[in-house]
Amino acid sequence: MSSEDQTPLNTNSAPKHIAIIMDGNGRWAKAKHLPRASGHQKGVQTVREIVKHCAKIGVDSLTLFAFSSENMKRSSEEVGLLFKLFLAVLKQETKKLNDNNIRLKIIGDMSVFTTEIQALANDSEQLLGHNTGLNLVIAANYGGQWDIAQAAKKIAKLVSEGQLQVEDIDADVFGKHVALADLPKVDLLIRTSGEVRISNFLLWDIAYSELFFTNTLWPDFGPDELDEAILSFHSRDRRFGARKEEN
Ligand code: IPE
Ligand code: IPE
Ligand code: MG
């Protein structure tokens, strides 16, 4: 038996699209009497492991909430630190992602970032755009409400240019303009750190996602717990509002 065969989860059983609210870096650091920066750094390590694991078990798309639009309200010191970390990760990881055939997409309002970050993010997306493996999506300065508003803006423009009729706007048309339009529907949404809320992450896209909440802080999260979340996902009866045929 090859090591591949021993993997408990294979391509057939992996959800197509997993989204994660990676929360709890600060509390992880606090519990260890470390600066918040250490929590964020350890959090990046968890990201590496989870990306690797998702690629291995055949997940099609992984969307990670790295920085919310509301996180801009944090101290300038912490925001600066998170921006620096984002820049460092883009610099360090792009080659490794490319070696692993991973595609990258960054969603969110990038205008708040420095021109250096914007340029690097753009370059990484371009370079990795031709890959055919895992679709890795990083949500940076992202808000679910921002996403819906920007989709509405694009649709309004099409209407004003005469390319779309108001009567033709429905959920399918609208869904083609949100940030994750070209990816499969989000099957499973995970949030770490014990908070049971969405915090303005994906709103449009999670209409029928299965939700998994864990008390584990993001820096302590790992492949085993991801497998647990996936097992839980498989135990759910997804009805999408319909009823199964009764025998
Ligand atoms: C999540 O960890 C990372 C970001 C929001 C950038 P937090 O920084 O929110 O950690 P806690 O919630 O304070 O523990
Ligand atoms: C959500 O976590 C954002 C990210 C994980 C990037 P927060 O820590 O910002 O959420 P709240 O403030 O607890 O709702
Ligand atoms: Mg938090």
How helix-rich are the residues, as a percent range?
Answer: 40-55%
Low-confidence stretches: 1-7
Structure annotation, total helices = 8
CATH C-level name: Alpha Beta
CATH third-level topology: Undecaprenyl pyrophosphate synthetase
Q: What structural class do you assign from the helix and strand content?
A: alpha/beta
**What kind of sheet is the major sheet?**
6 strands, parallel
CATH homolog superfamily = Decaprenyl diphosphate synthase-like
What is the percentage of strand-forming residues? Answer: 5-15%
Give me some keywords for this one.
single chain; 247 residues; alpha/beta; Undecaprenyl pyrophosphate synthetase; six-stranded parallel beta sheet; 14% strand; globular; disordered N terminus; binds 3-methylbut-3-enyl trihydrogen diphosphate; binds magnesium ion
Q: What is this structure, in a nutshell?
A:
The chain is an alpha/beta fold and 247 residues long. Helices cover 43% and strands 14% of the residues.
Description:
The chain is an alpha/beta fold and 247 residues long. It has a single domain (12-143, 184-234), classed as Decaprenyl diphosphate synthase-like (Undecaprenyl pyrophosphate synthetase), CATH 3.40.1180. 43% of the residues lie in helices and 14% in strands. The chain has helices spanning 3-6, 25-31, 36-57, 76-99, 115-128, 144-160, 171-175, 223-235, and strands at residues 17-21, 61-68, 103-107, 135-142, 188-191, 210-213. Strands 3-4-2-1-5-6 form a 6-stranded parallel sheet, sandwiched between helices. Helix 5 links the parallel strand 3 (103-107) and strand 4. It is globular. It starts with a helix and ends in a 12-residue tail after the last helix. 32% of the residues are buried. Mean pLDDT is 94; it is low at 1-7.
